[in-house]
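Re: Re: ligand-bound prediction request (bumping)

Still looking for help on this. To restate: I need the protein modeled with C2G bound, output as structure tokens. Inputs repeated here so nobody has to scroll up.
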Amino acid sequence: MKRVITYGTYDLFHIGHLNMLRRARALGDYLMVAISTDEFNTGKHKQCVYPYAHRAQIVEAIRFVDRVIPETSWEQKTEDIVNHSIDVFVIGDDWIGKFDFLKDYCEVIYLPRTESISTTAIKNTVQNGKSISR
Ligand code: C2G
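Reply:
Sorry for the wait, this slipped through. Here it is.
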């Protein structure tokens, strides 16, 4: 059983998030997602629209997500990987190189982000009363 983990805020869930989770799951047989808590996001200077409980439940409801855990600190990744016997750490290539230190514990993969969609773009689009392009 190849176990995969990824981390993120997953606010205003969108197709870029879904693509990431689908690709992450395809790298193994089990996908764990660590969702940033509201408190941790404050440290990331991210003000979420959806509270942690909603962001976690939405991701947990995805057929190919096996488990959601809270992300409360930058330092927890190594412990998570060891404690949950993780084989693969995956995240978007906007983080490329930032988590190479995890290579001592598991495979580290950076996947390309989905173009032209982001939580910020959605916020701006909604505020301007427009719709997201296909
Ligand atoms: N993502 C993507 N394409 C987008 C937007 C996001 O592939 N258009 C990916 C990101 O690269 C990340 C995941 O979706 O792997 C979640 O993105 P965010 O919610 O923005 O998470 P982030 O703020 O990058 O938090 O400890 C790591 C952090 O928790 C990552």
